[in-house]
Write a structure and sequence with these properties.
The complex is a heterodimer. Chain A is an alpha/beta fold. Helices cover 46% and strands 12% of the residues of chain A. Chain A has 12 helices and 8 strands. Chain A has an 8-stranded mixed beta sheet, sandwiched between helices. Chain B is of the alpha/beta class. Chain B has 20 helices and 8 strands. In chain B, strands 3-2-4-1-5-6-7-8 form an 8-stranded mixed beta sheet, with helices on both faces. In chain B, helix 2 packs antiparallel against helix 3, helix 13 packs across helix 14 and helix 17 packs across helix 19. Chain B is globular and about 75 Å long. Classes of the chains: A alpha/beta, B alpha/beta. Chains A and B meet through helix 1, helix 3, helix 7 and helix 10 of A and helix 2, helix 6 and helix 9 of B.
């Protein structure tokens, strides 16, 4: 049950649905991306671009103060902000950046560069079903993200099972049931308060019996400070990872409005269950989600998906350039 | 909760405490570090700036109070400014002369509105009121069902209708009047503040329901965006207060400071866990104390009214203030804490508890180990840990099933704690109040003999 990574020379995943890399965008991709640009544009306009305030033609420490402000306000955090500004200062000193306009571009480039070389593909195993486990704190958007992804994967021709692994939250199963019914995925759920591991196990068995490709496993939101709940999550992953199941993605869902605690969440969930990628949600609001820079720097976790609304199409692949543009506000 | 912000201040003030006089350079450095601590704690950038400036000008102007060291004065000023920023006063719920009293909850997706609605209902029930929950979130699949289930759990009826949020709100209030409920709590759909249509909708809901209280439900882990969100909702709805949720995490909670400052409304309630009764009114003076590492002696004692030995508490508090807090006292405190319930929520309340102890996952097994170490000491050793040399340490380790290094670790951390307590002695501790509730016998502590 090895996971086969995409090799150079593989067919372009966007055009060949039979390859390992599963693209989250359906045929509504271009519409979704236009929607993303429109939303980001709204956000961008709501932010006063620092470059507008700069004195024409001159880069000085005030410029850098304004940049610091932009980054801190975007939740980038002091440490990552300092690193970015130092890199920009080096460029100015070296003479490769000499005007505010060029500085704006350099900032975007520097931010986007932090995400270079990431493998953003969602991994499928050779022998299905693949299991993608969604984890995160309360309210991050796990269930909604699963709903959207299920719809997209079904639209791409995959047979999808959704496991209602949140057995704690009132009506969580009902919420997922709505999504599953609308897109034609199968829902497997247990009784309220049932052991989440057994629900997910049942879902995997069902997927095997029905030759399904993919199990999307929901889990209850939990604060990483609760040791008993993190132990429960460890067990959930262990059980899901037992043959015939194979957890090829552990996706940590993080709300874009989260401040510095996002880094702690990423650290703790990675320690507990080995996160393979981030789903950054609610980026359609005013928050910039800058904390993912620190997460990337410290933990090397790729941002795989971005949530930009509540509709099935509002889940797209992370694009570093678009993200950097929205964040830098220029 | 505000633990790590508290931790940073600990570091700053431990360093400040040592000096006799506070130079301008010292003050500047302290202010720089306060700024960093606040920003790392997710306090909004502009709010941070204002706060630091206020502290600077007060510290610079302050007449040197002979009874306080300069460092203590800075601590006092920071404490006062934080308390003032957090809202200064408690919000007291008052009721409409003509019922029902309508409460509207609004906020971003995932902030915890539905849970807060149910907990609020339970709170009102505890106040002797009869709330009706109105499920006006028709956007999120199964949101109505979720509130129905929660309503059943806490014992409050739930009203909804498959029409639209404005209609549901209006009819919900009418229903409350019809069946004689004196409080209505309206849950609304989460929405991003930048969506003009949805902001108009929630304003329309407010228009239809005429709430006496409109609360923004805000996640304690929210970062810099808290201000933008709060301002937008305030603009659309005119907020009366904030309900801060998920405080049982380790997010620093700077958003609370920011929102209170920018919107000028108090934090009315805080949600501190996943159970229906994990819901309290917000006490800004206590929060500020926690941020400064001053702990929360009054909270600890009040909460333990039924389980806490008044005498032990009073003695401990007095000894803490006078700086004569010994390992014996610490042991007593641990025993008291054990009687109060799960440790983790109480650890933050111990005044002057060193950062390392606070951040460590203090659960019952840790306490057992600490207790074992203390029990293995002689009374003389507990009274004056300085006499503990290598061979004593080895003996204590053997007796408690730990290592000499672990014993050493505990002693160092305890010494830190003592230092912090001694220098915090000038803070106004509320008197250990509450009903006299003398416990009869059954003390677990080893007999004292000096």
């Amino acid at each position: 049950m090895r996971v086969r990574r995409r090799q150079p020379g593989d067919a372009n995943p966007a055009s060949d649905p039979r390859t390992d890399a599963a693209r989250p965008e359906s045929s509504g991709a271009s519409a979704a991306r236009t929607g993303l640009v429109a939303r980001l544009e709204r956000t961008r306009q709501a932010v006063t671009a620092p470059f507008g305030r700069m004195r024409a033609g001159r880069i000085d420490e005030t410029t850098f103060d304004e940049l610091e402000e932009t980054l801190v306000l975007a939740d980038v955090g002091l440490k990552s902000t300092a690193r970015i500004l130092d890199a920009l200062r080096d460029k100015v000193r070296a003479g490769t950046v000499d005007a505010p306009g060029a500085l704006a571009v350099a900032l975007r480039t520097e931010i986007a560069a932090g995400f270079a070389g990431e493998d953003r593909a969602l991994r499928l195993v050779e022998e299905p079903p693949s299991v993608w486990l969604f984890v995160g704190v309360n309210g991050a958007g796990k269930t909604t993200s699963i709903g959207k992804l299920a719809a997209q994967q079904v639209a791409q021709g995959r047979r999808v099972v959704v496991a209602a692994g949140d057995t704690f939250r009132a009506a969580a199963g009902d919420q997922l049931a709505g999504w599953a019914a609308r897109c034609g995925a199968t829902l497997v759920r247990g009784a309220d308060g049932a052991d989440p591991s057994s629900v997910i196990f049942d879902a995997i068995e069902h997927a095997v019996a029905r030759h399904c490709d993919l199990v999307l496993a929901d889990s209850a939101g939990r604060l990483h400070t609760k040791t008993n709940l993190m132990d429960e999550l460890r067990k959930v992953k262990r059980v899901a990872d037992r043959p015939p199941g194979r957890v090829s993605e552990v996706l940590l869902v993080i709300d874009a409005t989260t401040g510095q605690n996002g880094l702690v969440q990423a650290r703790e969930f990675t320690r507990a269950v080995g996160v393979t990628g981030i789903v950054l949600t609610k980026l359609d609001g005013t928050a910039k989600g800058g904390i993912v820079l620190a997460i990337r720097e410290e933990l090397g976790l790729p941002i795989k998906l971005v949530g930009i609304g509540e509709g099935a199409d509002d889940l797209v692949t992370f694009d570093p350039d678009e993200f950097a543009t929205a964040l830098a506000g220029a | 909760m505000f633990e790590t912000l508290t931790g940073r201040f600990d570091e700053i003030f431990t360093r400040l405490r040592g000096r006799g006089r506070l130079s301008e350079a010292d003050l500047a450095r302290a202010l720089r570090e306060i700024r960093i601590a606040l920003l790392e704690g997710d306090v909004n950038l502009d709010v941070t700036r204002e706060l630091v400036e206020k502290i600077r000008s007060r510290a610079a102007d302050a007449e040197l109070d002979k009874s306080l060291t300069p460092a203590q004065q800075v601590i006092k000023i920071v404490n006062e400014e934080l308390t003032a920023t957090l809202g200064g006063e408690q919000l007291r719920i008052s009721y409409a002369s003509k019922p029902p009293t309508v409460v509207l909850l609004a906020g971003l997706q995932g902030s915890g509105k539905t849970s807060a609605a149910a907990k609020l209902a339970r709170w009102f029930l505890g106040q002797g009121r009869h709330p009706l929950l109105v499920a006006a979130d028709l956007q999120r699949p199964a949101a109505v069902e979720q509130l129905r289930i929660l309503g059943r759990e806490v014992g409050a009826a739930v009203f909804s209708a498959p029409t639209d949020p404005v209609d549901v709100a209006r009819r919900g209030v009418a229903e409350a009047i019809r069946v004689g409920r004196d409080v209505v709590i309206i849950d609304t759909a989460g929405r991003v503040s930048i969506d003009a249509a949805l902001m108009d909708e929630v304003a329309a809901v407010a228009q239809a329901a005429s709430p006496r209280y409109t609360f923004l439900v805000l996640d304690a882990m929210t970062g810099q965006d808290a201000v933008a969100t709060a301002v937008a909702f305030h603009h659309a709805l005119v907020l009366d207060g904030v309900i801060l949720t998920k405080l049982d995490g380790d997010a620093r909670g700077g958003a609370a400071l920011s929102v209170a400052k920018v919107v000028g409304r108090p934090i009315a309630f805080v949600s501190t866990g996943e159970r229906p009764d994990d819901f309290e009114t917000f006490r800004p003076d206590r929060m500020a104390g926690r941020i400064l590492g001053m702990g929360d002696v009054l909270s600890l004692i009040e909460r333990a009214e039924h389980a806490y030995d008044e005498d032990v508490a009073g003695r401990a508090a007095a000894r803490m203030r006078s700086g004569r807090f010994t390992l014996e006292d610490f042991y007593d405190q641990l025993q008291q804490m054990k009687r109060l319930g799960p440790l983790s929520s109480l650890v933050g309340m111990l005044p002057g508890l060193p950062k390392e102890m606070r951040d460590a996952p203090v659960d019952d097994s840790n306490v057992t180990q600490i207790e074992a170490v203390i029990r293995s000491m002689t009374p003389a050793e507990r009274d004056d840990p300085a006499i503990i040399n290598g061979s004593r340490r080895t003996r204590i380790a053997a007796g408690s099933g730990t290592t000499p290094a672990e014993v050493n670790d505990l002693l160092n951390r305890f010494k830190e704690m003592q230092k912090l307590m001694r220098s915090s002695g000038m803070m106004a501790h509320p008197r250990p109040g509450g009903r006299r509730d003398k416990r009869k016998g059954g003390r677990v502590t080893p007999a004292r003999s000096r």
